[in-house]
């Protein structure tokens, strides 16, 4: 009953920052997805009797790959597959389900915030038993396997009815279609003070949540509207669509502009505006009249986390990715707990969380989360903000101002240059890297370079080292430029330039971000020569 299909390796099945992401058309080639999934099964640690979790963000091609993966899991000796109803599991929900049911791992089918549809993107990511993305050793082994693979296995069985909750059998494999939301919603009720938030809602706390026609719709309807009592209609674009309604499910100021405009309208804005991305791990937080950068959100949530039941006992540590602003470091210092600076990519937080060294983590790329799962978690961040708003009775703007008055403010922006010719982008990086050693002590306009380095990370838990994780030029006074190439793009190269200016408490804490960063923009052009080397005179996206 097990079928062996001959195949040949495909080039380029190397998982990036967050799994294998390609155009749908690439995944539709015969054997393409199967080769990758078989490579995962060939190298994954999965003792006899293992459970595999499968779910995705509902994008085009999701169901096709899920059906194939189930037949392959049956042939590859898994004992049980848990699959979200309709093939839906948000990334944080999948992480939770893996942990809760002791699965040996999970396949998450998503290209995160990239658009979906027949001509857009698809992705497959493998998460391991702790619920987090496979560490580099595992993704490298998967990749190596894709270069030699010559067969994949499945069983001859009909499609599973993904829309009906309950058990079914595929060959010797027990398949269970599970409620996509229930386990996750129950976890959120444990972490946060739902009765307190409910009372605040009754007393007028209002919000708008944009699910961007992506995976968080069902989660947000259940948690925000049904369990917390927010008015129907609070969740916008709440029905997951295969093409996200032709939108780009990326919760930033460009793609969530409608929400942003609402939040800047003094008459119409609710207390909190929030959005999440394709697979539900990212978040956007906007208060009435006040956008909160992801870096600031991390710092403010860390400073106020004790107001939520799960964190009332204090935090063990705070971790942020290197390009994320240093705002959270100052909170860690005030709390007397360690601050960690890791390379970009949520997987680098896994060891710190597993070892109990950090409780809260965050990234400038709109990811925030804690040790409750091993992924970043968009709705978790929204619920923690709601818990803080309900507990303090303050507005988002008030919380932000008080935070800056105490800790100082890290003005922050990221400039993205997308679809750049790869050689030109490499040239920008190589050009700056070659200068690094000469920079300390030199003046660039009004700024003086204090330190310049190519960031390397030594993991304090397993001792592994990750090099070439981005170029840092740090100036005296706490301002900084960071330059790195995106690991998630699907076309050409994306150059990311991160700009950060520290303004101490007592300084100009309510300035215009672009104005406050102007010296840094000039310095970046002088040092990195992006315009000269790529012909791009302005970034495509500023977040
Ligand atoms: C994914 C990962 C994040 C990471 C981001 C970086 O979303 O899950 O942890 O921060 O990629 O993307 P980039 O395009 O900057 O490499
Ligand atoms: Zn995502």
UniProtKB/TrEMBL annotation:
GO terms for molecular function: magnesium ion binding; phosphoglucomutase activity. The keyword Magnesium applies. One of its GO terms (cellular component) is cytosol. Keywords: Isomerase, Magnesium, Metal-binding, Phosphoprotein. GO terms for biological process: carbohydrate metabolic process. InterPro entries: A-D-PHexomutase_a/b/a-I (IPR005844), A-D-PHexomutase_a/b/a-I/II/III (IPR016055), A-D-PHexomutase_a/b/a-II (IPR005845), A-D-PHexomutase_a/b/a-III (IPR005846), A-D-PHexomutase_C_sf (IPR036900), A-D-PHexomutase_CS (IPR016066), Alpha-D-phosphohexomutase_SF (IPR005841), PGM (IPR045244). Its EC number is 5.4.2.2. Signal peptide: none annotated. Its cofactor is Mg(2+). Belongs to the phosphohexose mutase family. This is phosphoglucomutase (alpha-D-glucose-1,6-bisphosphate-dependent). It comes from Alteraurantiacibacter buctensis.
């Amino acid at each position: 009953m097990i079928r062996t299909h001959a195949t040949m390796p495909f080039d380029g099945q190397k998982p990036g920052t967050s799994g294998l992401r390609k155009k749908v058309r690439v995944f539709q080639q015969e054997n393409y997805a199967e080769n990758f999934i078989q490579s995962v099964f060939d190298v994954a640690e999965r003792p006899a009797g293992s459970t595999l979790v499968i779910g995705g963000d509902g994008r085009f091609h999701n169901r096709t790959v899920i059906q194939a993966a189930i037949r392959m899991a049956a042939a590859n000796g898994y004992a049980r597959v848990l699959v979200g109803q309709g093939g839906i599991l948000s990334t944080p929900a999948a992480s939770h389900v893996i942990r809760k049911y002791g699965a040996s791992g999970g396949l998450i089918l998503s290209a995160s915030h990239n658009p979906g549809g027949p001509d857009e993107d698809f992705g497959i990511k493998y998460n391991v038993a702790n619920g987090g993305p496979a560490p580099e050793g595992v993704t490298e082994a998967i990749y190596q396997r894709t270069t030699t693979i010559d067969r994949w296995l499945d069983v001859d069985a009909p499609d599973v009815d993904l829309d009906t909750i309950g058990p079914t059998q595929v060959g010797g494999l027990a398949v269970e279609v599970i409620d996509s939301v229930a386990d996750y919603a129950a976890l959120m009720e444990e972490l946060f003070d739902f009765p307190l938030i409910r009372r605040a809602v009754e007393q007028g706390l209002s919000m708008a949540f944009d699910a961007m026609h992506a995976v968080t719709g069902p989660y947000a309807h259940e948690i925000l509207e049904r369990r917390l009592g927010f008015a129907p209609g609070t969740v916008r674009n709440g029905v997951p669509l295969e093409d996200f309604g032709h939108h780009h499910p990326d919760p930033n100021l460009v793609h969530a502009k409608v929400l942003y405009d609402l939040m800047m309208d003094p008459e119409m804005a609710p207390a909190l505006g929030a959005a999440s991305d394709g697979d539900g791990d990212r978040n956007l937080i906007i208060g009435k009249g006040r956008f909160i950068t992801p870096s600031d959100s991390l710092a403010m949530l860390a400073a106020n986390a004790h107001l939520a039941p799960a964190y009332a006992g204090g935090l063990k540590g705070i971790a942020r990715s290197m390009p994320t602003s240093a705002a959270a470091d100052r909170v860690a210092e005030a709390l007397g707990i360690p601050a960690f600076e890791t390379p970009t990519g949520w997987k680098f937080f896994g060891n710190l969380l597993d070892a109990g060294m950090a409780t809260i983590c965050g990234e400038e790329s709109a990811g925030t989360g804690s040790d409750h799962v091993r992924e970043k978690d968009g709705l978790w961040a929204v619920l923690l903000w709601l818990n803080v708003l309900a507990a303090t009775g303050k507005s988002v703007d008030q919380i932000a101002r008080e935070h800056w008055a105490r800790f100082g403010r890290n003005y922050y922006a990221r400039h993205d240059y997308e679809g750049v010719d790869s050689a030109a982008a490499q040239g920008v990086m190589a050009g700056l890297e070659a200068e690094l050693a000469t920079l300390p002590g030199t003046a660039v306009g009004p700024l003086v370079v204090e330190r310049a380095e190519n960031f390397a990370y030594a993991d304090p838990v397993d001792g592994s080292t990750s090099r070439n994780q981005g170029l840092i030029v740090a100036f005296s006074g706490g301002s900084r430029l960071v330059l790195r190439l995106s690991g998630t793009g699907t076309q050409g190269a994306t150059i990311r330039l991160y700009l950060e200016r520290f303004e101490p408490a007592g300084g100009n804490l309510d300035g215009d971000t672009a104005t406050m960063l102007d010296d840094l923009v000039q310095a970046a052009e002088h040092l990195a020569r992006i315009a000269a080397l790529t012909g791009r005179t302005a970034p495509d996206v500023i977040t």
